[in-house]
Amino acid sequence: MSFAPSTYLKRRTRLQKSLRSKQLKAILVTHLPNIRYLTGFSGSSAALLVTPTRVLLMSDGRYTTQIRQECSDLDVEIRKTEETLLDLINRLFKTTDLTSLAIESATLTVEYYLSMQEKLTGIELKPSHGVVEELRMIKDADELAEIKDSVYIAERAFAVMRSSLRVGMTELDIRNILEHAMNTFGAEGTSFETIVAIDQQSALPHAKPGKNVLSNNSILLIDYGARLKSGYRCDITRTMVTRPAGSTNIPSKFEKVYNTVLNAEQSAIAALKPDAKAADIDFIARDLIGKAGFGKNFGHGLGHGFGLEVHEALRLSSTSKQELQPGMVVTVEPGIYLEGYGGVRIEDDVLITKTGCEVLTSLPRTLPENTIYL
Question: Is there a single domain that holds both residue 185 and residue 213?
Fold first, then answer.
């Protein structure tokens, strides 16, 4: 799926304005999500040359028809069969008076950079970081609509998975039900490799689902998201506890951990607003978890931006220098992980608005709502 040509034109115009402000003569965009953001092209091989006055998409013959379908308004160069993409770039540069080129140093391999130095003779390569990514931090209306649709699909699928839980299911069983439901409701795939972790495995922030079995006295952590045809996605985590039918007893240790995480998450969300410092938001959650005695058990940042990629430029972390702006979309996901026991993470997706924030996710968050009787 591509948006209207005018959407991509506005994004490229913003990039060209940024190039002028940064005094860059040209930039070669090679990171595929950035190319998709600027053009709508969803193929796997391309480069985009952008100057303050020109935009040129370069690819190969496999994508000729796809380019016409996804971005027919662009100037396009298709490399010859005997050429590499770098050969094409070099050939085109010889027809211009450009002598310097910004490159996306954060995503280029060393090998490719050395090949560029060898091929693009007479051109000064200027390693640059975040030129396109800083534009992507502020979501436009089209992006927000897609993200909200991905949340809707993911949450419908979660309800199906939750109602299907039975004693004896493995993590893989649960993952398969969840992913099948997302695809049934319209997802093209998952936002990332789905995390389903039972009991002690839930203490691993990036646990891989396996054959651990659900009982009626389990911790169940699920971190997942739906990816749409447009490439946009969401990122949600819920932690549940299972109990025997008729039981009203929740272990006090788990209750303390769960409510500490929930309090940290909700307190951080309440502080999200324009001009707030990302590091300050992280501190709010980290301080509450620390005062509860679990500071050493929260070892990752509080959240991150997302959109075409599950991890994008904005970071809610103690080392971040960024300030929040309207249009940013971030996760808020504090966690406590106790080795040999289990973990709790609660994650919601939040839009920064002009006056504060809007929580895009709506799955139940309280412990009673996330207690499942089997």
Answer: yes
**Residue 65, token pair as written in the block:** 């028809």
| Distance of alpha carbon 304 from alpha carbon 214, whole angstroms | 30
> Look-up: residue for tokens 């689902």?
209
Residue type, 286: R
98 and 145 together in one domain: no
pLDDT tens, residue by residue, 64-107: 999 999 998 899 999 888 888 888 888 888 788 888 999 999 99
The SS3 call for residue 309 is: coil
In terms of residue numbers, what domain contains 165?
141-373
Cβ atoms of 52 and 88 within 8 Å: the answer is no
pTM (2 decimals)? 0.95
Residue finishing a domain among 105, 136, 167: 136
Residue 73 to residue 57: CA distance in whole angstroms: 11
Q: CA dihedral defined by 363, 364, 367, 370, rounded to 10 degrees? A: -60
Give the tens place of pLDDT for each residue, 257-272. 999 999 999 999 999 9
Q: Does 151 lie in the same domain as 64?
A: no
For residue 97, the tally of other CB atoms under 10 A from its CB is: 6
CA count, 13 A, side-chain hemisphere, 256: 9
The CATH number given to whatever domain includes residue 125 is: 3.40.350.10
Q: Residue 111 and residue 14: Cα distance in Å, rounded?
A: 30
Q: Are residues 131 and 168 in the same domain?
A: no
For residues 178 and 245, state if they share a domain. yes
What tokens were used for 326? 């309207």
CATH code of the domain containing 206: 3.90.230.10
Q: DSSP E strands: which ranges in the chain?
A: 27-29, 47-50, 55-59, 75-78, 100-104, 124-128, 189-190, 195-198, 219-224, 226-227, 236-243, 303-305, 312-316, 329-332, 335-338, 342-345, 348-352, 357-359, 371-373
Query: Which residues are within 8 A (CB) of 298 and not within 5 positions of it... i.e. 6 or more apart?
Result: 285, 286, 289, 290, 334, 335, 336, 337
Domain end residue (candidates: 93, 116, 136): 136
